[in-house]
Design brief:
Arginase, Chain A; two-stranded antiparallel sheet; 312 residues; alpha/beta; single chain; 10 strands; 9 helices; 38% helix
Length: 312
């Protein structure tokens, strides 16, 4: 039986954001917790750098070059929320490369489940714009790798980060080969993800936005996964499932107002794992948000426990 994989790289700690909620302490907290849990049997894999050609398939080449040059000049504030340093270019390459390497492992048969723990996160990054702490859209790059290089025709992305993944939404809005499902708090940054946004042209019907009110907890999030996402996924029959795994819907998180617990994240992961087992397809999770350090660490730990059951 293949072991699940945990993909990361020390360089993601060199993305120096200063006094900022998206900081290196997030990865340190996660990995300290997993060390105490003996990594739940996960194989640890070092993330490679993302290939430039793949970056430029998802993002405009001029944008990729601009990010590189800005970091090489020492960085600074791209916008009010998104800060980079001289170490951010390498961190971004490894964060994106980790998500891509996860897909390679999953589709190569080396693992049935896995988790990519990179930073900066990615789901707000658009084709030509960094925003919301994100530089490159890691999960979009992973899905593109699956389609372009592994020949897949249908990839499902479930995004349960409390903030709508506007970048992922927009990158795949006109496409039917990626089904994007987002559960997010209504009225929160970036103020997108309305129910009426369900795709454009050939992509119509392959975007599902499920905004929820503040104070939504485990029952709401889990019901949407179990009663909306899974039935639609069963109809879509994806060949790969990716989770944009943000943990900022946690009750302790300072950047939102939802009340999910680590048990809720475990239950959502279990629902997707069971669906993937039923269909016989791999399941990977890519880290997005989560800014209460201990809650983040507990939630990732609970998620990995469920992913580790992927071979049961």
């Amino acid at each position: 039986m293949s072991r699940p994989v945990y993909v990361s790289h020390p360089a993601v700690l060199e993305h120096d954001t200063g006094n900022h909620p998206e900081c290196a302490a997030r990865i340190l907290a996660i990995e300290a917790r997993l060390e105490r849990s003996e990594w739940h049997g996960f194989e640890r894999v070092e993330a490679p750098r993302a290939e430039r050609a793949l970056l430029e398939e998802v993002h405009f080449p001029e944008y990729v070059s601009a990010v590189e040059a800005f970091c090489q000049r020492g960085g600074g504030a791209i916008d009010a929320d998104t800060i980079v340093s001289s170490g951010s270019w390498e961190a971004a390459l490894r964060s994106a490369g980790g998500a891509v390497a996860l897909v390679d492992r999953l589709l190569g048969g080396d693992a049935g489940t896995g988790f990519a723990a990179g930073r900066p996160p990615g789901h707000h990054a658009k084709a030509a714009r960094a925003m919301g702490f994100c530089l490159f859209n890691n999960v979009a790059l992973a899905a593109t790798r699956a389609i372009r290089d592994h020949g897949l025709e249908r990839v499902l992305i479930l995004d349960w980060d409390v903030h709508h993944g506007n970048g992922t939404n927009d990158l795949f809005a006109r496409r039917a080969d990626v089904f994007y499902v987002s559960i997010h708090q209504a009225g929160l940054f970036p103020n997108t993800g309305e129910v009426a946004d369900h795709g454009i042209g050939e992509g119509t019907g392959f975007t599902l936005n499920l905004p929820v009110p503040p104070r939504s907890g485990d029952d709401v999030f889990c019901a949407l996964v179990e009663q909306r996402a899974v039935p639609l996924a069963r109809e879509y029959e994806p060949e790969l499932v990716l989770i944009s795994a943000g943990f900022d819907a946690h009750a302790e998180d300072p950047l939102a107002d939802c009340d999910v617990t680590e048990e809720g994240f475990a239950r959502m992961t279990a629902a997707m794992r069971q669906f993937c087992q039923e269909l016989g397809v791999p399941l990977g999770a890519v880290l997005e948000g989560g800014y209460a350090l201990e809650a983040l660490a507990r939630s990732v730990d609970a998620t990995l426990v469920e992913l580790a059951r992927g071979g049961d």
